[in-house]
Amino acid sequence: MSDEGQQAAAGPTRRVLLAIDGSEFTRKAFDWYTENIFREGDVVLLAHAFQMPVPAVFAFGASVALGDGYQQQVQAAQDKAIALLREYAALCESKKISCQKVIETIQDSPGEVICEIAKEKEVDMIVMGSRGQGVFRRTFLGSVSDYVIHHSHMPVTVVPPKK
Fold it and tell me: What is the pLDDT of residues 124-145, one digit of tens each?
């Protein structure tokens, strides 16, 4: 069968955003995706949104020059994020899955950033893990997966934790 025939048989290329946070729940979502809904030709966008360290301010309203310590914290956060994406890119490569890496810094809601990336990159679906918070905690603290489910305009698969 020609390459075009194989592509037609497999269906059009899908762009799948996999939200990465470094937890065991992310790995479970990755494994579930590869074992259950992966299709040859999929392109996985490995998306990681991380919060920059907040500089310590010692007095209200004081203007503080950010020193080397803060810059080292920022660099460490960026290095950790890059290493995490490289780890998942290597997993994709080992399974012969095409991937792209997306990294964003956040100020507030990781869920909002995930939805923005999904829209900007025109993905076909989002796959993410869930921490399995109880109703009380989820109600008062919110949940990234709840936010994405309610604000995304594309299908979202949330892989629950093992019970």
Answer: 999 999 876 555 444 444 588 9
